[in-house]
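From: lab user (bench 3)
To: helpdesk
Subject: output format question, protein + pyridoxal-5'-phosphate

Hello, I'm new to running complex predictions and I'm not sure whether the block I got back is the full result or only part of it. Here's what I submitted:
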Amino acid sequence: MPEYISTRTNGEDEPRSYTDVLLEGLALDGGLYVPTEYPHLTDHDIRMLDSLSYPELFVKVKSLLVGDSMSIMAQMGLADAAYSQEKFPETHRGDIVPIRQIGSNLYIQDLSKGPTAAFKDLALQALGQDMNYELKRRGEVLNILGATSGDTGSAAEAAVKGLGSISLFMLSPLNGMSDFQRAQMGALSGGNIHNIAVDEPFDALQSKVKELNKDFPELGAVNSINFGRVASQVPYYFSSYLQVMGGKVGGQVDFVIPSGNMGNALAGYIARKMGLPIRNIIIATNENSGLDHLIQTGRYKKEPSHITTSPSMDIAVASNYERVIHDVLGADPDRTRLYMEQFERTGMVDFRDIGRSADLLKQAGFDSGISNHEKRVRTIQRVYKDTKSVIDPHTADGVGVALERGQLDVPTICMETALPVKFEPIIFEALGFVPKRQARFEGFHDSSDKNFVMLPGGALGSVALKKYIQENALTRV
Ligand SMILES: *Cc1c(COP(=O)(O)O)cnc(C)c1O
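Helpdesk reply: Thanks, we reran it on our side. This is the complete output you should expect:
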């Protein structure tokens, strides 16, 4: 049964259970929680998953990471609540993460059928359920502070809306989100959801969250530093593999993953460690291409992030990279700490500086490619021409990287990370029309700020924010 330790400590710290790390966020020494060992599934075990509905498969796989900190019965109830028909209205029960073929050996896995039309729903719906269950069991409440540049905000809000033991404070930049995203978040305001628009860019808001976490260490996290989110993404890799292979196990596949913070790619890497026959985890980046450079050259360099037309991937430093590096360095906490501290101090690290070869990540199964606006537009056009389906710009970054690889010698599965309805301008640029809105999104026209608490930037805003959280935080009764 896995226990969880920080990437940076030698186990002097008490190991944690899955439910402990779920409620804790970052480890006290600044590292991220990882399991001490990964469970292994045989080909036979994997084949047995094929007959299951998605919630059942989800529990079979994820429970191996949860260990005995939650009963299987409880996990089954939580999975049914997370992946209900009501929350995934365009799916049939058991068909939450379907596969479609778009070319020779080329597939897309649809991951965006959830309430906010983003793959983040899959992890956050499960995380919200897990957290609420564990809080109730412990008789505790949790106040969560997060910052969003768009997708995370609404997905996290839809996941915890109405859950009695959680309050969510979500900071967003006053300028910078799309009208659709603002309307989507605004519609979720009220009750336990506090939307706070701050007159500052997203990067500054992330620093504010860190700063406030020092004043209120008991605040919880919903970003992918929370291992509960990563654990909830591992199962869909097993599902897509079985769908593409027709239930047979043995042959290898490649996955192409549009990446920002590397949470999704890490989940794929864990699936591979657990025995799923994955050849390559191919990271697709947009113009913010630091991860591609890292995988191809062994050198990771912190660059300022640019705003692009696949904005959810505009990340300068991938927060889950530390978990990957910890694993490829043989789970050695001292090396991990030295490597990460050098990166934090100088903004640059190179595998050769620690006596490892430049292609360390390639040896571990990673590969990569870069997309940009022009390729994104061309890929949206090409997929529409070939299949009559409209894909979103992030998914297009992945599909574009897959297409550039030429003849595909193994089945290649591209992860869909959002629906195009959220990104109308680039779809209009590529295709000359805006994507059709699913019935459940037809009401999203009101992008006014009336459902947001408005705060100024800078120190003045920080003081007001602290006061707002103190006055509105849930307290245990
Ligand atoms: C969050 C997000 C990504 C990046 O996922 P990571 O797990 O952070 O790498 C890609 N596309 C979309 C649409 C997203 O919302």
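A quick orientation on your result: Residues 118, 120, 151, 224, 258-265, 312-313, 394, 417-418 surround pyridoxal-5'-phosphate (CB under 6 Å). Let us know if anything else is unclear.
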